[in-house]
Each structure stands twice: as structure tokens, then as C-alpha cells.
Write the C-alpha cells for this entry.
Amino acid sequence: MAEVRVELETHSYTIHITAGGISRVGALMRDLFSGDKALIVTDENVYPLYAERLVTSLTAAGFTPAVITVPAGESSKSLVTSDFVYTKAITMGLDRKSPLIALGGGVVGDLAGFVAATYLRGVPFIQVPTTLLAQVDSSVGGKTAVNHALGKNLIGTFYQPGLVVIDTEALQTLPARELKAGLAEVVKYGVITDYDFLSYLKKNTDALLIPDLNVLTTVIAKCCQIKAGVVAQDEREDSLRMMLNFGHTVGHAVEAVGGYSEYNHGEAVAVGMHAAALISQRIGLCRQSHVDFLRNLLSSLGLPLQASGYLPKDLLSYLARDKKVVNGKINWVLMSELGQVTITREVSQAIIMEILSEITI
């Protein structure tokens, strides 16, 4: 078992990382929240696996839980689905003391967090992430959002959870493709802050893919520590926290062009990290050996490097609407060393198009 504390000015909380963590959620919540009713938001894939276990845990702790299930996949991150959850919360009489719990991956976490932040101007929110991607990234830090037809995560707010419980046993039921998607975000953390961590990942690629839960517990704790440290310094992404977007600028465009169905988030981020590394090398920020290291690591984890067949102009149109665009220029997170990134707006459109052409061949 491991614990990571996210120290914030007004909304600090603890991340609990443990095998069998879902069965401990009720007891951990009872120590923090006084309400009796609770609403669990999950999806149709996670519901049969873990909903009953979570309900049992909450009931034993004195809560009266209800469960709402949404379709699995990115399409559920919408205002339409949000309204569905609001209606359930209203009809069951959820009040300002009633916790709202996200049980699932990043989509469920983002959706439930957005609803928790806006229902009655904010109710207690708990993250119980069941995918590796959500465990190492989206469940920590308080970003909540839904998508718009014109772009990903364009409607949202910062709203910190009161508690995060990561059950590593949930990874045993995770499809291999989803496990690899989470590993893309894991690689990101090494690229932006820690070369030694990248070396650890390279040495343990086989164990990560099995998956070896002991190795993954170490990896999850490390990623949470990195993110907690960044968020503690820059909760609302005014400066430092932007580094967590490494690979996401092109990645979000790849997701959008594919209709949020061809590439999952982690796969798209892998393509985006490759693109960012190529841009970095092209403008003289990093060496070719750095690009090769990242490319080889992503490949060894079974992650894509290209969005073959996509049109560069289509990707560019989404880049122009990215939420990181300021005064018509994109804030690019680029690699200067393995374990170090820099943020710049000085990348010409010619170089952007050149790299987009390379990753879509």
C-alpha cells in the first residue's frame, strides 16, 4: 500500500494506492464526509465488475448509495450525459453533503467531476479510477470537463476530489489495449521530469505489459507523486502545470479527427509525444538520440507513433482550436532533454505542417 498527499492551499487530499482498495472506499469516505446519500457514476463496462463491491463498501459505512451507468467511451463526455446525471442527482435528493463518486476510467472521472463541480455549485467528489490512465493521470489534479463537437475538454472547470482510491487489482481486468494507453501517460511523466524513471520503464517493459502489480504499484505512486508536486505549485495551469500537456496538443487533434473512436487517449498521446519530440529536434531543442530513445520506448510498449492516413490539414484545424492557444499561437510543450521540457509559442506553421506530414504517412 502507498499513500500520496496532494498539498494544496485550500483543498488538500490523499491518494490511497492499494490492492483491494474498492472495498475500503466506504470506510475512507466516512472519515471525511458526513452525508448519507451517495451517487456512483460508472460505465457499462465497469458496472458488472466493481459496482456491487463499491455499493457493499458504502453501505457497510452507513451510506445509502445509488448507481447510474453511462455508455462506455468518449461520447459520454457530453452535456447531454451530464444532464442525465444531474436528473438522477435531483430525483434522488442529493444535497450539498452528498458525495458523488466516479468509478471507472478517465471519461467517467471527467464527467462525474464536472457534474460534482456544478451540481448545487459543488458537492463532495471521490475518484475511484479503474484504468491505468486514470490512476496515473486524470484522477489526480482536479481537471474536469466534457467535450464539444468542435474540440476535446473545451467545457470544464478545476474541481479537486476530496479523496482518490486506486485499486491496483482493477488492472487485472483491464484489456491490454487500455493498459498500453495508460503506459503512454506513464512515459510522459518520465519525459517531463525524470530520466531515471524513464530508464526504469525501459528496464521493466515486459513486467509492465504482463502486468506485474508490484511494478505497477511503484509506477503509479511515482506518477502520482510527480503530478501532485506539479499541481501543488500550479493548481490552475497558469504556468508550470502546462508541462503535463506534453504530447496532448497533437494527441487531442488525433483523437478529434478520428471521431474519438479510432485512437484512444493514450494512443493519441503517444503519437502526440512523437510529434512533439520531432518538433523539438527540428528546432534544435534536443538531440536525435533523445527522439530515438522515446520512439523505441513507445514502440516497445506497443504504442503507435503515427496516425497513418490522416490529413495534416485536418489535424491543423483542430490545433487552431486547442484550449492552449493564446492570441492565435499554440503553447507547445517540447523536449529539451530526456526528463526535461520547455514551453514555447515560437514554432512556425511550416515546421508544424512538416511534422504533421511525417506522422501521417
In short: The chain has two domains: 2-173, 178-222+235-358. Residues 213-233 form the longest helix (21 residues). The first strand starts at residue 2 and ends at 6. The chain has 14 helices and 13 strands.
